[in-house]
Amino acid sequence: MGLFFTFLSGFKATDYLTALFTFIFLYVIHFYYKHFTRINPLPGPLPIPLIGSFEIFKNDIDAWFYRLNKQYKHDGVFELNIAGNRQVVITRADYVEKFLASNSSSINHIMRTANNGLLDLFDLETKGVGLNHSYQHWKFNRHIFSQAIMPLSSTDKPSKYVNSLFEEMSSYWMNLKKPDEDSITMDISTWMRRFTSDFIALISTGKQLNTIQHFYRKTINEEVTEEMIDTENFIEAINVFVSDNQTLFVPKVLRNFPFIKSRVDSMLDNCRYFYGRLVELIRKKRKELEIADYKVDPKEMDLITSLIVANTKYDPHPQKYSDPSLMRPMTDDEIRGVMFDAFVAGTDTTVNTFCFALYYLAHNPHIKKKLVEEIETVFKDDLNRPVTYEDLDNLKYVEAVVKETSRIRPTVSMVSRFSSKPDEVAGYKWPSNVLFILYVRGINNNPLYWKDPEKFEPERFLDPKLTENHPKNSFSMFGGGPRMCLGRKVAIIELKTLLTLVYRKYDVELVDMQAPLDVETSTITICKELNVRLIPRVRTA
Ligand code: HEM
User: For position 382, what pLDDT does the model report?
Assistant: First the structure.
């Protein structure tokens, strides 16, 4: 060791600088050598060593993808480098079939990302569904979660919950309306974030979190209670995770770098808090079930109860599987993992889709008129009764509005798949470990499949000839294949019921018609703010 220091002491400061510059120079040469000799070079911006592109420091990565896709003339495939990682971006419907086919049993593209980040540190590597990186754990969790959530969508529970939450929220809005004014002005995205959290809480536990109520009380400056702080913290924890989840993919070697360490630590605190709240909900539910001796009407089961009793002697629908690994009950930690997914994947996605719909409807009054006409046709004179599960079948235009909103501005604008084996994709042969980005917004807006793609036109989804002639995968909202969204049916019920209730009771105008959508994209496109004027409808009948 002494000899080593004697050796170092022989160097001057300029020698260290020279060594540093030589290292950087060699790194840059190596980086570009690798770049220019890469397999299957595709069109794409010239990457900058280490960061890939300065675009990663902006808040809307989707805007960059959209621009590049236009620049490359929707050609079907281009490439990017993000933080040193090559990404192959696919923008044609026929190229994504391999990943999204409903009968796809191939496990080659089952993972969404490489596992070289911090998933294990956040206890997400083997937990939950969305980010799970262990095939066996993902399969087990997805199977149990799917059995718990899918049957809910054929009951009237989701629409009942939306009705009751809307009634509550709407009564707060009416209280906020000043007697001398004919409308209420608000950032509707903040209300809706609370609405969807209360909705998922109801679906999960049968009980409300009261986040809407607490937000209302905060808005009217009521004294802040512990309970109010708790629910606002809960909403904040979801927001933080959704808008900064890139932190999970920071390469392990960078974890302790000064700026990165504080960001990772703060995300860890956020997740610990969030997990703690979820575990509280699960333990509470377990206790209630124990007291009731697990006697629950199977038709009344909430999500957490279904997850707790799955594969136990209390399971009302016991099943046998050829794969014995699917037959064990879930631990509380595993339930916490999938509940985390339900809150993270199931709240913001619906809020954003809802807000985008409001934005596009306000900019297209003739479409809003048709939507209101359909609502009035279905509800005739009875405009206060709950929207039922049966009504949803008759609200075809409302559904077309939801789909058209998701076509033109999908909240999940990109879906990723990581290959574990060599494969042929988009006409090229690829080695294993390639990250493919299926650029949903690019495909949904590709002029090859959609006439005037930037025009908001829900009729596209009503004309059977049009939809039949469309190539497969030219529209996707919920992804596809083995990793397709598990909440898709519940989400459609929630969105249709909510849009109907809102437009039945209010006209919605934007405060600033000139303002573009205020969005940012990390993994999903988030509506940061949407200022609207709600004008209660005055019925003459
Ligand atoms: C408008 C609302 C929603 C949209 C647009 C949406 C969209 C998506 C998309 C695109 C994916 C990725 C699919 C793929 O990789 O092929 C996904 C996954 C997922 N979604 Fe949704 N989602 C919505 C609502 C919900 C809700 C309400 C829940 C649950 C309550 C939910 C739970 C999930 C889960 C658990 C996954 C991960 C599935 C897996 O990795 O196996 N989503 N969603």
Answer: 80
Residue type, position 541, single letter: A
In terms of residue numbers, what domain contains 358?
38-536
Instruction: Report yes or no: 478 and 407 within 8 Å, Cβ to Cβ.
Output: no
- Per the CB < 8 A criterion, the answer to whether 458 and 356 are in contact is no
Binding-site residues, ligand 1, Cβ < 6 A: 129-130, 142, 341-342, 345-346, 349-350, 353, 411-412, 415, 477-481, 483-487, 490-491
Take atom 21 of ligand 1 and give the residue whose Cα is closest: 485
Helix (H, G, I), strand (E, B) or coil at 425: strand
Q: Is residue 14 part of a domain?
A: no
Distance CA 331, CA 357 (A): 39
Residues making up the binding site for heme: 485
Q: What is the DSSP string of 93-112?
A: HHHHHHHH-TT---STT-BS
Report ipTM (2 d.p.): 0.99
Maximum C-alpha span of the chain = 97
**Cα angle: 447, vertex 453, 454; to 5 degrees:** 135
Q: Choose which residue among 110, 241, 349 to substitute to test ligand 1 binding: the one with the highest number of ligand atoms within 8 A of its C-beta.
A: 349
| Cα(262)–Cα(276) distance, integer angstroms | 21
Tell the residue number behind the tokens 């099943």, with chain if given: 319
CATH of the domain at 91: 1.10.630.10
Q: What is the distance between the alpha carbons of residues 92 and 89, in angstroms, rounded to a whole number? A: 10
- The CB-based long-range contact list for 296-299 (8 Å cut-off, 24+ gap) reads 299/155
Q: What is the mean pLDDT of each run of 10 residues along the chain (541 residues)?
A: 67 85 93 94 93 84 94 90 91 92 72 90 95 95 95 92 98 95 96 96 91 94 88 91 87 85 94 96 95 89 95 88 88 97 95 98 98 96 89 97 98 95 94 96 94 96 78 93 96 98 97 96 91 87 48
409-432 CB burial, b ≥16 within 10 A, e <16: bbbbbbbbbbbbeebebbeeebee
- The verdict on residue 7 lying in a domain is no
With respect to residue 18, please indicate whether it lies within any of the assigned structural domains.
Answer: no
CA of 141 to the centre of ligand 1 (A): 14
Q: Which residue has the tokens 């829900």?
A: 458
Q: What pLDDT score was predicted for residue 321? A: 81
At residue 3, the pLDDT reads 63
Q: How many distinct structural domains can be found in the chain?
A: 1
Tell whether 32 is covered by a domain.
no
Q: Write the residue with the smallest CA distance to atom 31 of ligand 1.
A: 487
What the block records as the tokens of 346 is 């199931």
pLDDT at position 518 is 96
Reading the block at residue 399, the tokens are: 């559904």
**The pTM is what?**
0.94
Centre of ligand 1 from the C-alpha of residue 488, in Å:
7
pLDDT computed for residue 466 by the predictor: 67
